[in-house]
Amino acid sequence: MTLAGAVLIVAGSFGYIRCAWDFATIGLSFSPPLLVARGIYRLVRNPMYFSLTLVLFGESLFFKSWRVLAYACVLWLMAHIFVTSYEEPQMLKKWGPAYEQYRAKAPRWIPRMRGGAA
Question: How confident is the model at residue 118 (pLDDT cuts 50, 70, 90)?
């Protein structure tokens, strides 16, 4: 379990750093003027939340902690509520059909490892 936890922590950390990189280089800011649908964002629509959740699940395994697991689950639930009730409607409003096409190609939570949105 310790090795699996370490792998999830590293994968989640890499994913989070890659998200920040994609935003900075593709979107040119953390409030991009264009829809970022390349890089890691072509695989999953919410890679920052996904990556953070991976780190926390990894920590729960690494430290064998039910409390960290519960925290990870609560955090994911809060992110899900925020994404579905606020973030996605705002993005749909801002980018319209482009976001609809992106949403059809890239899953919300579990990365599609065979491509996705272009």
Answer: very low
